[in-house]
Amino acid sequence: MRPFLKWAGGKTRIVDRIKEVLPDGRRLIEPFVGSGALFLNAEFPRYLLADANKDLINCYQQLQSGGGEYIGRCAAYFTPANNAADAYYALRDRFNATVDPLERAALFVYLNRHGYNGLCRYNSSGGFNVPFGRYAKPYFPKDEMVAFCRKAPRCTFQVAGFLQTMDAAEPGDVVYCDPPYVPLSSTANFTSYNADGFTMESQRALAAKAAEVARRGVPVIISNHDTPFTRTIYADAHDLIGFEVQRHISCDGANRAKAAELLAVFLGSPLPQHRSAAVTSPAEFSM
Ligand SMILES: C[S@@+](CC[C@H](N)C(=O)[O-])C[C@H]1O[C@@H](n2cnc3c(N)ncnc32)[C@H](O)[C@@H]1O
Question: Which of 166, 199, 233, 255 is 20 to 30 A from 160 (CA-CA)?
Fold first, then answer.
């Protein structure tokens, strides 16, 4: 199942890798759900899906409650006349002005498919400011929205910071965390700020919270770039699994064809004192 939204850092290409290490459980918790590539492809009785982005969660809640009616409302914006710069900027203004959650959610899908690179960016006053994307014929993801709808009755969606969501985890849950990536360049690793406002301190706080949640008996998987920094902050994990994925990284300057990904696996059991991470290849790893 493919997500219906384009989303930076979407995990569609590595879903199978994540599923190899994902334990079974009563409920899957995703504190950084984004476009939801993992939950759409992993079978759990229930899901707690959270993100700090209010528009994203509003969109999911409208789809959950509105179903086909909401999908029809989104589809109505996908016309040849609306695939033009002036129409896009008028609809972007309407999105920024409206206080109607349903209209905002329907326009969110239009902006996601007509805006530049499917980006979701806001200015300092909270206005959505992504420029027009100039696509020949933007795709309306009807089938993907219908598939999402089928899973939605088992889902709870919430706007929350990751610490709040992870504090809700109980034995029987499984947590998958896909935070904004740490920067790849080593110089950037020494600054405390990245473009998403997710700082290196946030990355450390997430790693510490994962270890704490695991000590409460809940397994936690975190994905991120494989860098010396991430290997250091995930040192309490039971396993660190590194692998390469084919990907275009435009912000990296050199347009590298492959990116090194890391999965940190914190098993849901008490950790021995001062245990350092074992590093295994995917073939050696088993749950
Ligand atoms: C890498 S994306 C997740 C990608 C997702 N797994 C997918 O397949 O599309 C990271 C997400 O973290 C969210 N986020 C950023 N800071 C956050 C925070 N402090 N708490 C919760 N979510 C946050 C962003 O809104 C974004 O959706």
Answer: 233
